[in-house]
Amino acid sequence: MNKLYTTLTAGLLIAGMAQAALVSEIDGATAATDWSDEVFTGSVTTTVNNWGINDNFTDASFAGTTMNLGNGTAVANQPFVNSITTGADFTGATFNWNPYTLNGGTRFNIFRNATAGTGTVNAGMKFNNSIWNINIAGTSLNTLQIFLDGAGSITAGTAANALDMSGVDFNFTGTTSLSTTAGTAIIANLSESTAGFGNGAKYDTAFTANNFLAFGYADAAALDAALQTAGWQAVPEPSSYALLAGLLGMSYVMVRRRK
Fold first, then answer.
1. How many domains is the chain built from?
2. What is the residue range of 208's domain?
3. Is 247 exposed, middle or buried (CB count within 10 Å of its CB: 0-12, 13-18, 19+)?
C-alpha cells in the first residue's frame, strides 16, 4: 500500500512539473499563443521586440519569475503589448527593464494596450510584492506607456477588477529619483484610461513607503495624495481587517447578551 501511495504521489508530482512552462518559452512572434492557466517558472533574458505580443495569459502565473528584457538599445520594446492578461499573477516577480533610447529620451512601453480595446482584458492582475528595476541610464523618460489604454481610473472600472500593486517596489537605475513630473506621469499611465475604459489600480502603505522617493515625492503622504488624485484605491491593511473582525465579534456578543 505504501509503495502504491509513493508511486501515485511521484506520478502526481511529475504531472504537475510537466504542466509548468519556462518563462523563456515566450517569444515575440505576432501569432497568438494560448498560455491561459499556465504556471511559468524560471527566468528569461531577451532582446526580442514585442515579447509576448498578442498572447493569451489569462489566469497564468508568473509568481517568483525573473524577466530581464532589453539591453538599452532599440530592442526588447513593448513586452506584453496587446496581450490578454486577465487574472495573471505576477506576485513576487522581478522585472528588469532596459528601455531603449528614442528621440533623446527613454522609451518605456510595458503592458501597452494590454486590453485589446475592451478595458477588461487585464482585469484582476496581481503584482503584489513584485520588484520593478528600470534602467533609465540617466536620461529623461520620453515616452511613458505602462498599461496605456489599459488600467484606467478605479471609477472607470470596478474594485474587483483593479490591478493590485500592493507592496510593489520601483527602482530607477541612473537617478536617485524621478522628477515629480515624470513620477506623476508613470502614476497616470498605471491608472490611465485614454480610450474611456479601465480597471483601476489598488495599492497599500507598503507601496507608498517603497516608492515615494523613487517617484520624486517628499514623503509617503505626498505620493498617497497623488495616487488618490489618479483614482487609485487604497487597500485596507491586515490590521484593519483584524480590527473590523474584532468589532463585529464584540457586536455579536453584545447582541447575544441582550437576548
1. 1
2. 21-258
3. exposed
Note the pTM of the prediction, 2 decimals: 0.78
Q: How far is CA 130 from CA 29, 31, 38, 89, 147, in A?
A: 26, 28, 19, 10, 16
Q: Is the pLDDT reported for residue 89 higher than 90?
A: yes
pLDDT computed for residue 117 by the predictor? 41
Reported as a pLDDT band with limits 50, 70 and 90, residue 24 is very high
Flag whether 28 is in a domain: yes
Nearest in space to 100 (alpha carbons), one of 85, 79, 131: 79
> Does residue 14 form part of some domain?
no
Greatest CA separation for the chain = 74
Q: Is residue 7 part of a domain?
A: no
Displacement of CA 86 from its chain's centroid (Å): 11
Enter the C-alpha cell of residue 6. 509513493
What sign does the CA torsion over 182, 184, 187, 191 have?
Answer: negative
The average pLDDT across 63-91 equals: 84
C-alpha grid cell for residue 10? Answer: 511521484
Is pLDDT of 204 > 50? yes
| Kind of pairing between the strands at 105-110 and 101-102 | antiparallel
Give the burial string for 134-152 (b: 16+ CB within 10 Å, else e). bbbeeeebbbbbbbbbbbb
Establish if 191 belongs to a structural domain. yes
